[in-house]
Amino acid sequence: MSEHLFLSDADLAKLTGFKIKSKQIDWLRTEGLPFRISATGHPVVTRSAVEGREDSATAEISWTPGLVGG
The dihedral of CA 47, 52, 55, 56: what is its sign? Predict the structure, then answer.
């Protein structure tokens, strides 16, 4: 099975610990992970954004999320 470019809904729920999209978005912002908001309001995260990433407690986060408008 090939690897997908974006995290699935199940992957995102496992990563964030939340199934509700607003909670997932809050968690992603807090953790400093880059994401976009889809037309349906769901967060979209690329697999490469989380692969090889250190635990946020020990990693220095240099990326700052921008405002997401819609």
Answer: negative
Distance CA 29, CA 66 (A): 10
Rounded CA-CA distance 70/16 in Å is: 23
> pTM for the complete prediction?
0.71
- For residue 20, CA distances in Å to 14, 30, 31 come to 12, 16, 17
Contact 24, 50 (CB under 8 A): no
Number of H helices, E strands in the chain: 2, 2
**Digit-coded pLDDT (tens) for 2-17:** 579 999 999 999 999 9
Torsions phi, psi for 37 (to 5 deg): -105, 130
